[in-house]
Amino acid sequence: MSTEAGIAPFSEDRAESIRMVRDSAAGIADGVARARALRFSLPGFSADVWRQMGGLGWIGLAVPEAAGGSGLGVAEMCALSEELGRSLVPEPLIGAALSAALLAAAGEAEILPRLLAGEAVVLTAWQDRANTLTPCTDPSATRRFIAMGAGATHFLLPVGDQLQLVEAGACEATHELTHDGGHLTTLRVPAGRAVGKAEILPALDRAALATAAYLLGGMEATFALTLDYLRTRQQFGKIIGTFQALQHRAADTKLHIALCRAAVEQAAAALDAGAGADEGAAMVSRAKARASEAAMLVGQACVQLCGGVGYTDDYDVGLYLRKAMVLAPAYGGAALHRARFMALSPEAEDA
Amino acid sequence: MSTEAGIAPFSEDRAESIRMVRDSAAGIADGVARARALRFSLPGFSADVWRQMGGLGWIGLAVPEAAGGSGLGVAEMCALSEELGRSLVPEPLIGAALSAALLAAAGEAEILPRLLAGEAVVLTAWQDRANTLTPCTDPSATRRFIAMGAGATHFLLPVGDQLQLVEAGACEATHELTHDGGHLTTLRVPAGRAVGKAEILPALDRAALATAAYLLGGMEATFALTLDYLRTRQQFGKIIGTFQALQHRAADTKLHIALCRAAVEQAAAALDAGAGADEGAAMVSRAKARASEAAMLVGQACVQLCGGVGYTDDYDVGLYLRKAMVLAPAYGGAALHRARFMALSPEAEDA
Amino acid sequence: MNAIAGVEPQGLDLLDDESFRMVVRRWIEAAYPAELRNPPKRLHWAENRPWYFKLAEKGWLCPGWPLEHGGMGLGPTKQIVFTEELERHGCARCNDHGIIMLGPLVIRYGTEEQKAHFLPKILSGEHVWCQGYSEPNSGSDLASLRTSAIPDGDEYVVNGQKIWTTLAQDANWIFLLVRTDAAAKKQEGISFLLVDMTTPGITVRPIINLEMHDEFCEVFFDNVRVPRANLVGQLNKGWDMAKALLSFERIYLGSPRQSAYALTRLRQLAERMNVWEEPFFASTYARHRCDLEDLKALYGRYVEVLKRGQPLGADVSQLKIIQSELFQRITETMLEVAGENAGLMEPMEGNRNLSPAGQYIQARPSTIYGGTNEIQRNIISKNVLGLP
Amino acid sequence: MNAIAGVEPQGLDLLDDESFRMVVRRWIEAAYPAELRNPPKRLHWAENRPWYFKLAEKGWLCPGWPLEHGGMGLGPTKQIVFTEELERHGCARCNDHGIIMLGPLVIRYGTEEQKAHFLPKILSGEHVWCQGYSEPNSGSDLASLRTSAIPDGDEYVVNGQKIWTTLAQDANWIFLLVRTDAAAKKQEGISFLLVDMTTPGITVRPIINLEMHDEFCEVFFDNVRVPRANLVGQLNKGWDMAKALLSFERIYLGSPRQSAYALTRLRQLAERMNVWEEPFFASTYARHRCDLEDLKALYGRYVEVLKRGQPLGADVSQLKIIQSELFQRITETMLEVAGENAGLMEPMEGNRNLSPAGQYIQARPSTIYGGTNEIQRNIISKNVLGLP
Fold first, then answer.
1. Domain spans in chain B, listed from the N-terminal domain onward
2. Which of A125, C126, C254, D140 has its CA 20 to 30 A from that of D83?
């Protein structure tokens, strides 16, 4: 299905590299059946698939080759995330890629190779509260909202101006199930091993943008299912896709997705082109705000358009809405990111 | 056309009295042709009709009989305003009724009888700025946003804790035309004659509620025109009212109107039943917030539903939208009134 | 005898409305199991039957039924007060299809034998009813239903499938709309049939919904033999009978209770999340609150219609649209406020009041069930606005 | 010779895009009449003809026409830059139907005689064109138009009525879609005809719109005799030709310029009204701004299509919906912020930037003209989403 509106802001070379990444996803991201089967269990994802992802170079996709990564860009990471989002792949790739970026920047070389190979699962525990974009650096603070934390082998924490690594087994962890079938982990963490310094905010931005892309992939997948439903379901002796009210709701859904794709791909291109810190962060904020909001609107519209069937757990559209509930706030929700966009992005002089 | 949803919160006696008031409006409020003809002129209304309104007892409709008024209630005033709104009657009845209420409360007996008879036009200049619900009492402040001020014979002003009356001829006045064909007057006022004291806020509330009712009448009238258009206009070989997208937009419009009527009539009934000061003011705020917002939404929907024709000055639906632009903010717009509602209306304890 | 125990059903109608309200309130507060207040999900029979029997024992199970059939014989106003008090206290909804749907229908259309047989068994809790209307291909277009009942001797033979049957797994009887004349126009060949769910050939399969709850079921009928005596009313007139009952549903679905409950929860959540100072929140909350109060005002106007014993017009569809969409908006704000807690399956911090995801998901189907909001808007545009 | 005057049309194409932009910008800033910047309403010919002639004299009137026909011969990218610079400076839109609609059509479909006759007269300002497409009963359903052209000797006899003809009172020529085969299916009997408006039988009646402006007209044709030589392209193929031109209109109507302009005005109004601290305003403004930036990003993707010389798909309808509805929302916020000033006919305090009502009213028809947004949504659902 072509979902492009206009031409994405990528050069032909990049577009080709992005296509290759998308193709490489096909083996793992091939529908939601696997995600469905893993729901509501701990750790909720597959160690085998994790190793496969390592083997494909995904965990270090955007890590420099010098540090053992694939050395690709943000655009490729977003394309991959989008494909994972289509199939609701549960492995914590975005969270682990965040850790890999931080470890690489810090010059860590012990756990990083194992993480990149899919032998370790290192998740970054940067958050001590909901609704924040500011990493917590207090060593004694409880760390919260770590997605799929039950499967982590290590946690990476900003502490003071250092990064600390701690083994998962040394932490006091509780896991709360989420509606997407995954879970969020709350951690009390002992002192860990310092592994160097790294700028955290740019790495969080890349995770936020990848999350936006994951949501985008999910939106397109659930919308495609919904269009199929509209094209086949009959009521009142007619295909329901002939009812203008449903057609227009579908058209509105398409608009949300188109805006989301434009924002996500523009931000990815800008980061890859070396946008200034504020400019890049502002674009990420706009993209994540759009994706967080659009994912909910699209998810809701699709459930509504599918009627009673859309409200059953058996039907896949509901899976996407419940994933959006979890990912819309991850790495910052819409209101938070819009406020940051405004703070970072001065307006042109008045004409 | 029956526009009632459910049964209004009026007793049978009141309902009868309201019906009589509505009937009495038929002679003056009989379509928008008169309003159209008076547009964009000064004073923009008819002195003859003003005297007629005095003769019908409208200017003092809610003034106690002891003070020379008709002694009717808020519900009757709202019903009358609604009928005036249907025909976009330009005479400043709501503004003058506000003055009459204040003069009566202050015990003034000289100009009041002339006002009630429609021989004088007394308008209250309570506002020194936009977006406020607080009367200005500073004698030196410029007074603003006095609707149809070019036709006033006198202005009534809160000054300190007194009311002052000043002849229009003694004021320095400028008039700015508004899109409804009326105007707003800005005044610099010399010292006037003190005429006593009165509580201003409750009187302003009644004016706000009457304005909400006027808007409600306008909404129903423009919606009725729009429904006629939808029932007759053809495109693509079909009556456009058969297109589901337009049907649903019309249904949404109906919902706005129904909520507005419920809020306005509930507030009127509560004031007539002697609701406490805060409770009454809170209900008025809710009703005015609803009416201000609904009038814009309904006006916009009707222009859109009528397509190109709706955008012509010749077609009446546009008159209602432009009236709403002027009256939505009058006596406080939606945001201001919602904020006041929240401040005045404590919530029930949690269950 | 104290004031509560001393008031028998026969005496209740003599009380003024406010006294009646206080009598009801005090009894509910004393009798209702505390652990069942504001349940996060629709309860199963095993959970709510103690409360069912408490109501039954008190004689307060069926407020709207006439006294002679074992009801409370309340007029419309007192029925509304009674419901308001149940809602106010957060009482769980019983398996009430027998009480509010079937009972009134049998009283109005049933034979004397049917009344004598079925009504007491509802009152006693022996029969727990569910409603078999929707079918997989007859949701919005209910009248296109195809489950058939073919006469064969003294019996009908029923074949087909129902869906969205609320709590069918708890029920031992089901009332069905079935097609008894395949040749007639679609509304005209439908009859109303009562079926013992223990009859061979019936299979119930729960549907798990987005809440991971089994509130709804599919019910399959494979050559199910039903006595002809179980037909209620006239043959092929079932549609009109069912439709008359649905007008009750339309005002029920327009009741502000869900939105009011959700708004209270939103306020509690906002306090917990400390968002009152956030620029968007205060104005969003104020908007929800005004929307709710205006809905209450509009609802009150329809309640007044019922109180005066007048029929509800098609415009009652307005209530259902307004209430369900407000309910959804409020719960959408909940998720925004909850931030990263928005996806949690269990209430936050074990506090049942802080369950944004639960409320959000419960609000989703409110624009679907009871006639989708699209259908309601069709009704308004055609039957209220007179559009072609 | 300075850098501005020294660059002739022929040389412009050799500049890189940014140099081109600066050359254009400097000339516009020097040449454009200051009093015509950001006019509150569409200007009439009497007002904008000095600017028209300045462009003509410079050779910059027709950026998209080939050099051999007197245009600037710019490629897509430079054409876009040129337009952006005009918009950036707030230049009034000329009476440009000859430039952007008729000229390209004649160049593509006209005979050599037509090209030689009509194109120079556009460049010289001798012919001012208007577009006669819509009719009173053919708005959304344009193809149902009924204005007829019946052959009679060397002429066609035109009868009928056009409506929403922009600035017809300023024009001396009109290009028409007319029905030349009443028996054919509706799209197939339509031809494209050029008509001198001084021909007897033509009456122009301005329509006053909600802005109290006469931007649009009705044009009546009563036995108007038009030479057969004025038919452009093939007989009965006018629909396809007109449609090809409309794809330009679809991206033009999706340009973010209106929303961007309105947002700037909203910001200025908000400062004047001192509402940045209001709880609702900051978040509302942030939302508009994100909406605008995302629209710009999406628009850029379509511009890229044009730059590469590829055809626009049906999905370009998205832009028009998004832009027009954002434009409306921004102006709705203006009215909220303006409070009691919301209804004023003239700008507040004589400051043209503070004209909330003017902007608000101008935004109203943006969801109607150029194909209503309902039509655009139909196009998306059918031609993009593949719904039946």
1. 12-200, 212-350
2. D140
